[in-house]
C-alpha cells in the first residue's frame, strides 16, 4: 500500500487533503497542531514520495480520493492479509493480481523470493514492484480507471487471455454465501472472472469488513474460490459457513 509506511502525521495530512484539496498550510497547521514550517516540510517529503502533488500554498493527493480513502481503512489488517498471500507464492511462480488496495500490497512482501512473474491490471502495484528486481510485471493494456487505479475493458480482457498462471489473487467490495463475490463496477467484475478462468487457483484477499456486504454486480460464486485470506475479526459463524462450502480460510 502506498500509504502504509507513512508517519501518523503524514497519514493525517493525506487524509485531510483528500477530504479538502484546497485546505491551506495554515489550516493543516491549526488542525494538526504543529507549525506551518513543519507542515511545509511534511508536504515536501510527501511530494518526493509521489504521494501528493505540491500546489501553491498546499498540496493535493496524487491519487483519486476513493483510493486514498480505501487505503486508509484497516491498514494493519490489510498488510497482514497481503503478507499471508505473499507467503503462498513460490520461487518461479506465475501469478495474477487484480486491482485493489489489499491486493496491491502483495508485491512488497515478495522480497526474498525469486523469478516471480506478475500479470496485473493494477497500477498501484507498480509502486512496490519497481523496487524488487526479482519481480517481472506485465501490466495489461486497456482503459485507465483513476477511481480504482486499474486498467479495464475489452483490451484488458483480451490480453489476459494470453496468459495462464498458478495463482490469481483477487479482492471484492463484498462477499456473502448467497451472492458470492460482488463489486460496484461491471468492468472490475469482468477482470476477476477472466483471471479466475486463466489460473489454476483463485484466492480471495479481503478484510473482515467486506463479509456480509453486497455490491451492485455479482462477480463469482464463493465456490469458484479455493482460499479466503482475511483478518481475525471475521466472525466465527462466517468462518464456519465458508469452510462448509469447502473453502480454506486463513485468518491473520
Counting helices, strands and paired strands, the structural category is: alpha/beta
Q: Give the CATH class of the largest domain.
A: Alpha Beta
Mean pLDDT over the residues: 91
Low-confidence stretches: none
Please give the alpha-carbon distance between the first and last residues: 17 Å
Question: What is the CATH topology descriptor of the largest domain?
Answer: Rossmann fold
Helix content: 25-40%
Number of domains: 2
Query: In sequence order, what are the helices and strands, one letter per element?
Result: HHHEEHHEEHEEEHEEEHEEEHE
Task: Write down the Rg.
Answer: 19 Å
Strands of the widest sheet, in order across it, are: 5-4-3-8-11-13-14
The biggest beta sheet is recorded as: 7 strands, parallel
Give a short summary of the structure.
With 252 residues, this protein is an alpha/beta fold. It is 34% helix and 24% strand. It folds into two domains: 8-70, Arc Repressor Mutant, subunit A, CATH 1.10.10.10; 74-251, Rossmann fold (3-Layer(aba) Sandwich).
Can you describe what's shown?
- The mean pLDDT is 91.
- The chain has 2 domains: 8-70, Arc Repressor Mutant, subunit A (Orthogonal Bundle), CATH 1.10.10; 74-251, Rossmann fold.
- The strands form 4 sheets. The protein has a 7-stranded parallel β-sheet.
- The chain is α/β, with parallel strands linked by helices and 252 residues long.
- Strand 9 (174-176) and strand 10 (180-183) form a beta hairpin.
- The two termini are 17 Å apart.
- The chain has 9 helices and 14 strands.
- Helix 2 crosses helix 3 (36-48).
- The chain is globular, with a radius of gyration of 19 Å.
- It has helices at 8-19, 25-32, 36-48, 65-71, 75-86, 125-129, 154-160, 186-197, 236-244; strands at 52-55, 58-61, 94-97, 116-120, 135-139, 143-145, 150-152, 165-170, 174-176, 180-183, 199-205, 217-220, 227-230, 248-251.
- It is 34% helix and 24% strand.
Amino acid at each position: 500500500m502506498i500509504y502504509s509506511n507513512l508517519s501518523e502525521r503524514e497519514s493525517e495530512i493525506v487524509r485531510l487533503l483528500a477530504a479538502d484539496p484546497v485546505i491551506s498550510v495554515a489550516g493543516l497547521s491549526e488542525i494538526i497542531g504543529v507549525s506551518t514550517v513543519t507542515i511545509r516540510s511534511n508536504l515536501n517529503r510527501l511530494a518526493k514520495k509521489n504521494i501528493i502533488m505540491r500546489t501553491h500554498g498546499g498540496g493535493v493527493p496524487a491519487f483519486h480520493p476513493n483510493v486514498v480513502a480505501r487505503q486508509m481503512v484497516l491498514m494493519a489488517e490489510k498488510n497482514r492479509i497481503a503478507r499471508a498471500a505473499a507467503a503462498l507464492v513460490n520461487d518461479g511462480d506465475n501469478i495474477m493480481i487484480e486491482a485493489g488496495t489489499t491486493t496491491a500490497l502483495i508485491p512488497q512482501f515478495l522480497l526474498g523470493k525469486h523469478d516471480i512473474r506478475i500479470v496485473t491490471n493494477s497500477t498501484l502495484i507498480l509502486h512496490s514492484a519497481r523496487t524488487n528486481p526479482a519481480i517481472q510485471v506485465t501490466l495489461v493494456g486497456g482503459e485507465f480507471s483513476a477511481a480504482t487505479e486499474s486498467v479495464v475493458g475489452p483490451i484488458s480482457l483480451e490480453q489476459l487471455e494470453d496468459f495462464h498462471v498458478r495463482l490469481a489473487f483477487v479482492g471484492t467490495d463484498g462477499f456473502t454465501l448467497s451472492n458470492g463475490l460482488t463489486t460496484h463496477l461491471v468492468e472490475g467484475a469482468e477482470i476477476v472472472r477472466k483471471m479466475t478462468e486463466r489460473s489454476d487457483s483463485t484466492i480471495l484477499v479481503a478484510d473482515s469488513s467486506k463479509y456480509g456486504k453486497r455490491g451492485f454486480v455479482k462477480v463469482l460464486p464463493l465456490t469458484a474460490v479455493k482460499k479466503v485470506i482475511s483478518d481475525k475479526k471475521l466472525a466465527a459463524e462466517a468462518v464456519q459457513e465458508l469452510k462448509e462450502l469447502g473453502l480454506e480460510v486463513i485468518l491473520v
